[in-house]
Model the fold of this input.
Amino acid sequence: MKHDVVRRYSGNPILTKADIPYAVETVHNAAVVKCAGEYLMLFRSHLRTGRSIIGLARSKDGFRFVADPAPFLTPAREGPFAAYEEFGVEDPRVTEIDGVFLITYSAYSRNGVRIGLARTRDFVTVERVSLITEADYRNVVIFPEKFGGLYARLDRPHSEIAPWSIWISYSPDLLFWGEAKLIMRPEPYHWDEMKIGPGAPPIRTPEGWLSIYHGVFQTMAGAVYRLGVALHDLADPAVIRGVSDSWILQPEDPWEITGYVSNVVFTCGAVAEADGTVKIYWGGADSVMCVGEADLAELTGMCLEGGRASGGAS
Ligand code: BMA
Done:
């Protein structure tokens, strides 16, 4: 019998447009964090214009979520963010650090896609901090700890020359980022050969920082988005200790195979539990939200045993 690394929840999909009390066409690519014993989900929704907003849903158990009556973050209409959010806000990630929840999201406009940084303490009020990239970047995840006094993040710049790879950079204040370095490339003729991007903010494990990322393979029938895992050194996250050669999740359920964009599983969040399991959340076919559970030790083991020795960056 087949062993599933990620055990899909039997109640998937856990959140769909039918569950949202305002008009949306999709519910997907959500960040999830625990705050005061509650699971908070920031999800992306397409409106009927084709542009996206971000909503909030809450859960006691991490499986059954109830959406708030109104959206959480919609495109800024005035101020310095407005010119960069006119086409929508997408794919949020959340990291808790020093009691503050940092939210990174893709800001789309005629000027390209940049990453916005917002922060909240209570998920009631939210404050935009800064646009922390130029165009064209996506998939910014911030580590939940500092390194040598610096914040660290992974991101995925878009380049016509280099393959779409994962980079790291650092900041003293979350505003100014530097020391950027490419640390992981797509692997030729593997499931993640076309492009890769950070998914959930990295999770601390005894073996290293576990990064759940997405990888894309181009087929004659279009792109397939899958999830994989990489392990970064605990003290120096620019060092990749290993990358699993196999994916951990691919589109298999009907709502992952068919939808707004077919054949997509895409993660923006995962919650590590005290019992050594991790709840991984993913958007199915850019349409619905799903969850599954995995064992952290198995995921780190896949990176270290029989995995690729590095991210192929050196
Ligand atoms: C990526 C992003 C994601 C999306 C994925 C599949 O480029 O736009 O938001 O889930 O494509 O459509």
About this structure: The chain has one domain: 7-304. The radius of gyration is 18 Å.
